[in-house]
Amino acid sequence: MKQPFSDATFLASSAGAADMPPPGPPEIAFAGRSNVGKSSAINALLGRRRLAFTSKTPGRTQTLNFFALGEAARLVDLPGYGFARVPKAMRAQWQALVGAYIGSRRTLVGVVMIMDARHPLTPLDEQLLHFLGDVPLLVLLSKADKLTRKEQAAVLGAVATAVPGQARLFSSVTRQGVDECRSLLEQWLEQPGSGRRLE
Fold this sequence. Notes:
This protein has helices at about 40-45, 90-105, 125-130, 150-160, 180-190, and strands at about 10-15, 25-30, 65-70, 75, 110-115, 135-140, 165-170. By secondary structure, the chain is an alpha/beta fold. The protein has a single domain, classed as P-loop containing nucleotide triphosphate hydrolases (Rossmann fold), CATH 3.40.50.300. A 7-stranded mixed sheet has the order 1-3-4-2-5-6-7, sandwiched between helices. Strand 3 and strand 4 (about 75) form a beta hairpin. The radius of gyration is 16 Å and the shape is globular.
């Protein structure tokens, strides 16, 4: 059977709840601080180079970007948060956009949160963890290739005990953790009745 991550195409960008694609197959959202390696992680998982656009300019992505994995699933790239000198109005826009998606999307099966392995669990990361509530969570510690094995083990242990979901080391450069993460996400998508029931 063809794996969904091998059949990814860009679907749509959304600047608000009104123009989101209609709910369809199960969705996995990706969240993280700006410039933390979120787009690179998505591209690595999908086996593509530039499907999710990467930029050295923090805060470039200010829309929800939907990617179709064939007809089986979707990935959603959430706008990054916490870039320098962010205006209050833009923070409010981020909260409204992401809040509307996470709070109401019935087809959301989980969130992959990207943290820099060198600087995990920042106050902004903690805020997002609180914001997500009880949504199923997988934390990817990106740029793990920049740490020694001893440092990797230490940071993984610290984060794994501090977050309500699973944590994995990840590098889009060396592909550390790519296959393992993809397998975990495929398990999310294969669960019977994938998607949340919202009261």
